[in-house]
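Dear colleagues,

As part of the handover before I leave the project, I'm documenting each prediction I ran so the next person doesn't have to rerun anything. This entry is a single chain, and its sequence is reproduced below.
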Amino acid sequence: MSLKIDLHCHSFFSGDGVSSPEQLIEAARSKGLSGFAITDHNTCDAVKYLTDRGLMSPDGLPVNDFLIIPGVEVTTAEGHLLCIGAVLPDLKGRPALEVCHLIHEAGGVAIPPHPYDLFRAGIRENVLNTLPIDAIEVFNAATTLKRYNRMAYDYAIRRGLPMTAASDAHHFAAIGTAFTTFRTENFSVAGVLEQIGKENDLSQNYLSIRDSFRKTWNNWLRLRKRRSVEELLKETSENEPR
């Protein structure tokens, strides 16, 4: 079985995300993904939201043949670090090494996203060398410069690390631009986590100019309007079919 999973996605529970979890699911399904990891910045609120609505299973199994993996993108003291497969409290500002240990204690895997990206809080190599990471994101569809992805790939080769690719979507239109394909018969969170440590196929496409502009424009609008999560949730609820 081949599972197409986007391991790095943001909803409006992130301060810079604009799409509802439902919009992410609809877009991911339309693009043929098997699932995605919800990795909002420093919060796992989307996991509770999805579980409460029956869109995500607490036992780690797919819902209606679609798998959502719990996760979070932690802003550590040294840069961003993805936790995939577990729920964590807000660890913003804590040392990356400590966060790695907490991820493992919670049963998740630690993956640095967009390392080397000087404009997006990537963890630098001198710190990466000290971290017990499980894999590294070698292709980020939204990277500032393409050479940052090549540098991450070269580092993975030198260290012998498993590799992942992801969209880093902050808008539903961007989800699935890049993803990782896992070959496993275990269609579950546990099955994906086990496979992350192995060799997998990477789908590597960059955001289009339109999607990049949309990401920047929507983030600017949200920051300008300072719309709260509560307002976005209310809007989502009002737009649901009766």
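Strands lie at 2-9, 35-38, 67-76, 79-84, 109-111, 136-140, 163-166, 179-183, 201-203. The mean pLDDT is 91.

All the best with the project,
I.
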